[in-house]
Amino acid sequence: MATGALKALIFDVDGTLADTESVHMAAFNHAFAEVGLGWVWSTDMYIGLLEISGGKERILHYWNQVNPAVRELDAHALHDQIVRIHELKTAAYEAAVNSGAVSLRPGVLKLMDEALSAGLQLSIATTTSPVNIAALMRHAVGADWRLNFSAIGDASTAPIKKPHPQVYLQMLAALKLPAAACLAFEDSNNGLRAATAAGLGTIITPNPFTAHHDFTGALKVVPDLSHVTLTALRQWQNFPRA
């Protein structure tokens, strides 16, 4: 079914714009050590934990796994502890990004530049925090990185995390465009489900943490964006979903 002119590209951040997950995992482990929890998340563990969207949600999920019948803290104290851990984790992640530990995935900047030159709008739709986005994009693009994006949705604007489509619906409203005029870029099953639930055709670029996911329903699955052009996107836009 024809979808009309392509007018905007909407990007997830973690795992899509950059291979950030190993750095996030290290930042979580740093935070756990800081508060004396003694937790260490391995790569295999973290691959499973990524099924839970959102850092604080991931910590709470693991807390309940480790202490299924233990209520050492009341609900308010547990919330405060998780917030503290997440603050330490975010600070560790930002420091790692600023030190050059993360770079954008192949083809990302090229495609963004091509889109902007052609008059398309760019948007971000993520479940990560504003601080994490800013750290990554400031380091990769420069201090004025926000000027490239017509709309940004993150954990502060969309508290209902993927696979719920809230953040994508917010971005479509902000862009003032129908889903048929946009394409989404994701790396995970949760992201794909969120984007397609909002009516968006979705391009998937898997990474080592999500390569095992089910990407049924994606318009296209490609290793990265290094060979992706606007011409290709316009062709894929008219593909039936897998």
Task: Provide a descriptive summary of the structure in words.
- The protein has 242 residues and is of the alpha/beta class.
- The protein contains 9 helices and 6 strands; from the N terminus they run E-H-H-H-H-H-E-H-E-H-E-H-E-E-H.
- The protein has helices at residues 21-34, 43-49, 55-66, 75-98, 108-117, 130-140, 166-175, 189-197, 230-236, and strands spanning 8-11, 121-125, 151-153, 182-186, 201-204, 220-221.
- It starts with 7 loop residues before the first strand and ends in a 6-residue tail after the last helix.
- The model has no long low-confidence stretch (mean pLDDT 93).
| Portion in helices | 40-55%
Order of helices and strands: EHHHHHEHEHEHEEH
Number of strand elements: 6
Radius of gyration: 18 Å
Give the helix/strand layout.
Elements: E1 8-11, H1 21-34, H2 43-49, H3 55-66, H4 75-98, H5 108-117, E2 121-125, H6 130-140, E3 151-153, H7 166-175, E4 182-186, H8 189-197, E5 201-204, E6 220-221, H9 230-236
Parallel strand pairs: 1-2, 1-4, 2-3, 4-5, 5-6
Annotation keywords:
single chain; 242 residues; alpha/beta; 6-stranded parallel sheet; 9 helices; 6 strands; 43% helix; globular
